[in-house]
Amino acid sequence: MKVLITGIAGFVGSHLAELLLKWGEEVFGICLPDESLENIRGIKKELHLTNCDITDFDRLSSVVKRTNPDEIYHLAALSSVGKSFSHPVDVIGVNIRGTLYLLETLRNMRKKVRILIVGSSDMYGVVKPKDIPITEEKPLLPVSPYGSSKAASDLLAYQFFKSYGVQAIRARAFNHAGPRQGIGFVVPDFASQIAKIEAGILPPVMKVGNLSSKRDISDVRDIVRGYRLLMKKGKAGKAYNICSGEAYSIKSVLKILISLSKKKIKVKTDEKKNRPAEIPILMGDNSRMKRVTGWKPKISIEKTLEDTLNFWRRRYS
Fold first, then answer.
1. pLDDT per position as a tens digit, 47-59
2. What pTM did the predictor assign?
3. Which domains are assigned to the chain?
């Protein structure tokens, strides 16, 4: 089985590549020309890598046709919700065009290629308490440029399936964390600060934004296992929430991380870290995912946070 992963050198892409190699897949990957390959350093020799900007239609189409994959996992995206507020044109341009160009390439191929379009819980926007946990039938009402870009990509996948028969599966992943996740997300932001404090790089004061929000957080290793199961068992055209089904307050996440450190750390609120529009709670219903694929999360939030903190400790030790 030939598999192509866009964004293979990223946080999630690297974990997915490792998983697929263990299953004996022949793995091809797309990277940006100047992108760091640190995340896939240990498996690089087992991969077939190509430099390509997904917003270059001719180049992307050429790479896909030359690779001739059986399956495509589309992970490449500008993925920071926070940064999307200050760079909406870039985020929407890259995320929507990249998805559209892939779908259009597959529309023009004779071979039926299954493609997993990876979305986000941010597509749902602000949800009323009565609608928690969130099912796949919840209307998409995003309040961030990132959420809007993912909602558009999700709808494009559905439209290309209905109109042209492109075998697109829509994954709606809720928050996930783990080793290798970059700065700009709450868990690595906290973990990296603690690691710097322990290493003596920063004073023992944590700078944080809004801690009252609640998020459905899974381990990235559970998430990529879900992606593979969806690729094998999911129905084209359908949407699937991949989530733990539990909501953790950001305050509780911070408390667990601080408890893993022997340093006495103070917490200080930094208004600059607050977003223009905040979603109070995101918690998903994963019953469709469980029913169709048999997937369920296996890794605890405590294990995820400990592994993430240890990753940053190694970085700053």
1. 999 999 999 999 9
2. 0.95
3. 2-176+217-242 (3.40.50.720), 181-215+247-282+298-316 (3.90.25.10)
